[in-house]
Amino acid sequence: MSDPFVPRPQAAFRVGVTGARALPADAAALDGIRAGVAGVLGAVRDLVLDCAASPGAVEVYRPGKALLRLLSPLAEGADRLVAHAALALGYQLEVPMPFPQGAYEDDFPESRDEFRALLAQAGPDKLEIDGRHGEEIGNRSYEAVGRLVARNCDLLIAIWDGGPGKGRGGTADIVRFAARANQPIWWLRADGAGGPCWIDSLQQLRRPPACTPEAAQARLAAYVKNLILPPAGPTGPVTPPLRQFLAEAPLPKRAIWRTYGGVIRLVAGARRPPPSQPMPFTPGGEVWPYWERFYQPPDRLSVDYGTRYRSSYVLVFGLAALALWASVLGSGFSAWALAASGAELVMLVLIAILVLRNVEGRWHEKLITYRLLGELFRKQQALALLGWTVPAAEATHISGDVDELGVLPPDITVRDVWVGWYFNAVVRAAPLPRGALGGAALAEAWQAIGGSLVAGQVEYHDQRRRESRAAAERFGRLGRLFFWGTFAMVALKLPLIGIHLLRPKALGGATGSAVDLVRLFQGLLPGLSAGFVGIRGYAELELVADQSGQMQRTMSNAGAMLRNLDLTAPLASQELGAVTLSLADAMLRDIKGWAQLFRIKVVEPGG
C-alpha cells in the first residue's frame, strides 16, 4: 500500500529544562527536587501515551509509539538532574549547546566525564550554537541556548528560587522569556520546598497562583490532552475538516479550470508565466526535507482548489451574461425564440451545477484553509534550519480565537481550528538541526532562507502586482466601454422606434430589422459590462496589487538585511533567526489578511 498523499505526524511531546547550576546540598531537599522532576516527567509520559492510544489520535497520527523528547543543554545542576530522570523514563535526549563542545566543556572541567556520558546517550541529537566565551558574548550565548530550549519545548521545567536573575541568560531570564510567549512552565523551587506551580503568562509569573500538586496536575492534564488529542467534531473524535484533509489526493487537471488564469492574463496582456522552478539549492540534513514533505500537499491542494474556485466565478459571470442575452433573444413565439430560451435554460443549469459543485466540494474554504497551512509550513521550514519556530500561539490564533490553554470556548465553532492543531503536532515531532550552527552550515541556512522566503517571493509579488493592476484597469475600461455601448444602443433604438411608429411604410421593414438588431446588442452589452465589473470586484484586483506591492517592499528590505549580516560574527545564527522570524511574521500577517478578505467571496448563483 502506497503512502498517503497527506503525511501524518508522529505523536510527540517535548520537555525542556532551565534551572540553577548549584542545587541544595541538603539530601532531603535534593530528593524533593528529584521526586518533583520524576513526578512531572512520569505524568507527562502517561498522559501522552494514553492520549496517543485514543481512537481519535490513532486516526490522525502515523503508526508507532509516541515520541517523548527532552531538551537539555546538560549544564551542571538542574539540566543534568532532569536529563537523568528523563532517560530513566524512556525520553529521547536532545542537547543544544551554547558553544562548540570543547569550549563548552571548559565551563565545567570537574564534571566533564558526566557531561560526556550523558551526551553520548543523545547520539547525533546535539547542536552547537555559534556562541563564544567572554563576559557579554558568553551571557548572550547562554541566553541563546536557553531561548532555543524554550522555543522548542511544550513544557519547560524550571528549577528556580523565584528570585531575580544573576545576569543575562540565567534561569530567571529564560523563565520570563517563556512566560511572555505564554509557554507553560512547571516551576519547582530550587530549595525543594513547596509543591509545583503551573505558570503560563507574565501575569502569573508576577503573582503566582496557589502552588499545589492538585492544581498543577489538573492544568497539566488539560494541557497535554488538548495538545495530543485532535479537535473533535460534533459527532466524533476528529473534526470532519481534519479527517477530510488527511484523506485528500491531488485533483485531476482540467482545461476548464484554467479559465481564470487565462482570462486574467489575456485581459492584462501578460504572457503565460514560466513553470515554477525548484530551489537551486537545498540545505543538507533532515530539517529541510522534513518540512518540505509536509508543505507540498497543502500547497498543491490550495492551488488545485484555487483554480477551481476562481475559474468557477469567472464562468458564472460569463454564463450569466450569455443567459441575459439569450433571454432578450427569447422574446416572442418564433422558433428562434424557442432555441434562445432553451439556451438560456442551459446557461442557468450550468451556473447551478458550478455553484453546487463549489459548495459541496468546499472549494473556496479549502483554498483559504490549505493556503494558511501551507504558508505556516513554508515559514517554519526556513526558521527550523536555525532552531527557531513560529510561536505555537500564533499558529493557533491564525485560525481562530482560543483561551489560554488553546481550548475553544464551548459556544464558538471555528472551522479552521484544526489548522493550528495539525501544524503544532507536526512541529512537536520535527527534528532539530544537528551538528554545528556556524560556518558552512550557517551559510547554507542563509542561502536557503534567502532563496525560499525572499528571492522567489520578490519575483512572484512583482509579477502578481503588475498583472493584477493591469487586469483591474482593463476590466474597468471594458466595463465602461460596454456600458456606454449599451447607452448608445438605447439612444439609437428610441428614434428607430419613433420612425417605425410614425412612418411605418417610409423605410419598409428596415426600421423593424434595425430595432431587432439594436435589441440584440442591447441584451448582450449590459451582461458583458456587468460581467467584467463583477470579475474585477470579485477578484479584488486592486487590493491584490496593493498587497503584493507592500509585500514586495517588505521582501526587498528583508533581502537587504540578510545581505548585510556578518555570518562570521559570534551568534550570527541568532541575528539571522531574528530577521527570518520578523520576515515570517510579516508574511503570515499578509496571508491572514488575504484569508480574511476572501472568506466572504463565496460563489453564489447571484454572482
Description of the molecule:
This protein is an alpha/beta fold and 607 residues long. The chain folds into 2 domains: 12-228, Rossmann fold, CATH 3.40.50.450; 284-598, no CATH class. 62% of the residues lie in helices and 7% in strands. The protein is built from 20 helices and 8 strands. The protein has helices at 27-52, 55-60, 78-88, 101-105, 112-122, 135-151, 171-180, 202-206, 213-228, 240-246, 259-268, 287-329, 335-361, 363-384, 392-397, 417-429, 439-502, 510-539, 541-563, 572-598; strands at residues 12-19, 67-71, 92-97, 126-129, 155-160, 185-189, 197-199, 435-437. An 8-stranded mixed β-sheet has the order 7-6-5-1-2-3-4-8, with helices on both faces. Strand 6 and strand 7 form a beta hairpin. Helix 1 packs parallel to helix 9 (213-228) and helix 11 (259-268) packs across helix 17. The two termini are 44 Å apart. The model is unreliable at 401-413 (pLDDT under 50).
Summarize the structure.
With 607 residues, this protein is α/β, with parallel strands linked by helices. It has helices at residues 27-52, 55-60, 78-88, 101-105, 112-122, 135-151, 171-180, 202-206, 213-228, 240-246, 259-268, 287-329, 335-361, 363-384, 392-397, 417-429, 439-502, 510-539, 541-563, 572-598; strands at residues 12-19, 67-71, 92-97, 126-129, 155-160, 185-189, 197-199, 435-437.
Straight-line N-to-C gap: 44 Å
Radius of gyration: 31 Å
- In the sheet with the most strands, the strands line up as 7-6-5-1-2-3-4-8
Report the total helices: 20
Structural class computed from helices and strand pairing: alpha/beta
Strand segment count: 8
Write down the domain tally: 2
Which spans of ≥5 residues are poorly predicted at pLDDT below 50?
A: 401-413
Portion of residues in helices?
55-70%
Q: Which term fits the overall shape?
A: elongated
Strand content: 5-15%
Average residue pLDDT: 84
Sheet with the most strands, sense and barrel status: 8 strands, mixed
SSE order, one letter for each helix or strand = EHHEHEHHEHEHEEHHHHHHHHHEHHHH
